[in-house]
Amino acid sequence: MASSLTCAGIVWAFLSFLCAAASCVGFFMPYWLLGSQLEKSVSFGTFRRCSYPVRDESRQMTVMVEQCGRYASFQAIPSAEWRICTVVTGLGCGLLLLVALTALMGCCVSELISRTVGRVAGGIQFLGGKCSCGEGMGM
C-alpha cells in the first residue's frame, strides 16, 4: 500500500478523522443545553431536541413530548441566530470531514497529497475548526 504521506502526515490523517467524527457526533446530538421545563428534563442542540412542550388543542393545555426529534422545518428552529449556528456548525463539520477523508485516502494512494495540497487542506481544516467551534462568526 503506497502512501503520499510521511509518518507525521499519517498521524495527522488519523487524528483529523477522529476530530471530525467527534465534531459530527457532537453536532448531531441534542445535548448542547440541558435544563428542565414543566418538571421534566429537557435538552436540545442546533436542530434536535428532547422532551419539548407542545400545545394540545383538544385539552387546551401544554404537554411535554418525552422523545427526541428534529425540528419540523428549518424555520421551526427558535431563532435566526440558532439557524445561523446550525448552518455554520454544519458547514464546519462538513469541511472537517472532507479534509479527514481526503487525508485518509492519502494514506492509501500515492501521489494524492503533495506539499501544496497538504497546506491547502490544513487551511480548510482550520476554517472548518473555526466554524464548528463558533469562532468563525465571532460567536
TrEMBL record:
> Can you say what this protein is called?
LHPL6 protein
An example of a Pfam family matching this protein is L_HMGIC_fpl
Give the UniProt entry's GO cellular component terms. membrane
Q: Where in the cell is it found?
A: Membrane
Topology relative to the lipid bilayer, per the entry, is: Multi-pass membrane protein
Signal sequence span is 1-21
Provide the gene name from the record.
Lhfpl6
Q: Which organism is it from?
A: Melospiza melodia (Song sparrow)
Annotated membrane-spanning segments are 87-109
Q: Which domain of life is it from?
A: Eukaryota
Keywords attached to this entry? Membrane, Signal, Transmembrane, Transmembrane helix
